[in-house]
Amino acid sequence: MASRYSMWSVFRNGLSGQQHWDRVWRDPEPASHYDVVIVGGGLHGLATAYYLKKMHGIRRVAVLEKGWIGGGNAGRNTTIVRSNYRLPGNREFYEHSLSLWENLSHELNYNVMFSQRGHVTVLHSPGAIDTFSRTYNTLRMTGSDGEFWDLDTLKKNIPHLNYAADARFPIYGATVQPRAGTARHDAVVWGYARAADALGVDLIQNCEVTGITRDADRIASLQTSRGVITGDKTAFAVAGHTSQLWHMAGLGGLPIESHKLQAFVSEPLKPLLDHVVAFSVGGGLFYVSQSDKGGMVFGGDLDWYKSYAQRGNLPMVQNVAECATALLPCLGRVRLLRHWAGVMDMSMDGSFFICKTPLSNLYLNAGWNYGGFKASPASGWYFADLIANDRPHDVIRHHDLQRFARGYIIDERGAGADPKLHG
Q: Residue 112 gets which letter from DSSP?
């Protein structure tokens, strides 16, 4: 069991030259059989394992990660946390997630650096004001927080946006969720990994699933780079690589496309931006915040071709840079430090899947689009509930693979059946 972090433990280990800290988590050899095997050692897999142990008492749980813990999308995002969703199912899910975020550092005994600096959506037309006011009124009517800032209030809070009368995207005001903000993605990974390990979860790194054996309508075993592993129940939480495992299981196609989403960070600057700022207009998408190290962390749209690459490309650098300078002209001479990409599993309606599958002991967590990081706590909570009880919680009952056949489309943006458009 890992020792509990406290001010006293930091002081005591400082006196001893930092020589006596426990391992943050173990590096166990895989057992041959588990009650639940979770494929995917990102935030969703780790959170699921943690809640399976903590809330449901599942005894033998393993997380299989083909690389290292935190080496996938968990460390390749812009760290934004918010719950400003409107549609039934999404509304309750993301609000639950935000509530979990608010106590997560205490829950995990690990500082995830959750900063509730507010999420500001800049609006560029009267029509945008009407549309977003409807969403934010829904937030207020369902017990959450939402505000409308007129132009004067916005100027007072964020004075360096492009308020010029002839701006490319003239600004009319903004909607704001004050409880939203950012968290340190690495810290969240480490916190969930440490907490799950302390409860007895086996975190098996460098363990790639290379094949799946079925026994009729069940997963019989997983062939991995570290041997054959069996489980009473198997769960997939592998984001953009879901389709590959789905095919390994002989299940055909999924309503998912894998695209890469690039993110960027600038050189460090003095304090400039106290909020998360986002806009979506004219086919463009942009969001930006400032990290604790001073870098401007920002991103935009997906690359519009399907890819498993975790690297950027110059056309999207230009696209996002144009959005950045249109909204914040003061960034025009700032140097880009680095950029990268995560592999996004984009669903046809822009909403996720947490559901049972055609195989009786296989469970699916996928289709996170742009929402994966902010959803991590609730994703693990509801996925663990599904696996343990073998039925979906009422909040996620429509987030299954059959919703398209039923005509139940959960399309927040109203973009239609095109996974590239659900920003």
A: -
